[in-house]
């Protein structure tokens, strides 16, 4: 399982920090619970970049939150106490991921303006707005890169699944061809046995026919011999009858 570590600062100082292990399933609330001290009250995770800061939603996946690209090293994550301190509102912008979320937060809590100094001119506001616009554009680019990566992974999975199906079909075809070849060999063997028996029976039939012809010939010779004996017997009897008595 892919794992990395997120550095969470417990104050505006960079000395007090906690290294939190992060996996693709880690949510923001898991990070907050990991960093909280025993008995500590409500806290939230703040994402700070340059002069802008936002509250990370409890159900946001940290792997997606960390998709900052080349600006990743400029982002700081700090554990804040609820309610958000007034100093953070005066120092920078409290923003959400989308303009709709900004409007919803402003309506729900009028005391926390989306843009500091809404009641009058604020020094450095154009620069902060430019930073905010650059930040939002960077987040949009990061989300687009993440989406493209997930689409690529999906395409790879589809290609792999298609390859596995093709390999399975090829394996089944090979098994079927092997079985058909084995059946064909058995049929050829049986056909050879039948042909051998037929030839053997044919030779036996020829021998029987020859013996039958020989027997018929002997019978004819026997009949001729019997007929000759009969003729000779008659001639002998005739000679005896014609001889005078002495």
Automatic annotation (TrEMBL):
**Pfam family, any one:** RASSF8-10_RA
Entry keyword annotation includes Nucleotide-binding: no
Coiled coil ranges (UniProt) are: 140-235
Q: Alphabetically, which GO biological process terms does the record hold?
A: regulation of apoptotic process
Gene Ontology MF terms: p53 binding
Name where it's found.
Answer: Nucleus
UniProt main location, coarse: nucleus
Q: Which residues form the Ras association domain?
A: 4-81
List keywords of the entry alphabetically.
ANK repeat, Coiled coil, Nucleus, Repeat
Classification via InterPro entries: ASPP1/2, RASSF8/10_RA, Ubiquitin-like_domsf
Q: Provide GO CC annotations from the record.
A: nucleus
Q: Which PANTHER family match?
A: APOPTOSIS-STIMULATING OF P53 PROTEIN (PTHR24131), TUMOR PROTEIN P53 BINDING PROTEIN, 2 ISOFORM X1 (PTHR24131:SF16)
Indicate what this protein is called per its UniProt record: Ras association domain-containing protein
Tell me what organism the protein belongs to.
Answer: Tetraodon nigroviridis
């Amino acid at each position: 399982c892919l794992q990395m570590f997120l550095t969470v600062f417990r104050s505006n100082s960079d000395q007090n920090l906690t290294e939190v292990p992060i996996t693709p399933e880690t949510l923001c609330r898991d990070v907050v619970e990991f960093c909280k001290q025993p008995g500590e009250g409500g806290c939230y995770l703040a994402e700070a970049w340059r002069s802008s800061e936002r509250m990370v939603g409890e159900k946001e996946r940290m792997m997606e939150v960390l998709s900052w690209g080349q600006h990743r090293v400029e982002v700081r994550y700090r554990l804040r106490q609820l309610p958000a301190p007034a100093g953070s509102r005066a120092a920078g912008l409290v923003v959400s991921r989308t303009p709709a979320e900004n409007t919803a937060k402003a309506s729900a809590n009028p005391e926390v303006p989306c843009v500091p100094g809404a009641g009058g001119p604020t020094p450095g506001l154009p620069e902060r707005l430019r930073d905010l616009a650059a930040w939002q554009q960077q987040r949009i680019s990061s989300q687009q890169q993440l989406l493209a990566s997930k689409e690529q992974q999906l395409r790879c999975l589809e290609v792999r699944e298609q390859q596995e199906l093709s390999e399975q079909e090829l394996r089944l075809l090979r098994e079927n061809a092997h079985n058909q070849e084995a059946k064909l060999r058995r049929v050829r063997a049986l056909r050879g046995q039948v042909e051998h028996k037929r030839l053997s029976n044919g030779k036996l039939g020829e021998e029987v026919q020859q013996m039958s012809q020989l027997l018929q010939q002997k019978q004819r010779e026997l009949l001729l011999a019997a007929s000759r004996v009969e003729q000779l017997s008659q001639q002998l009897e005739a000679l005896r009858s014609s001889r005078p008595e002495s």
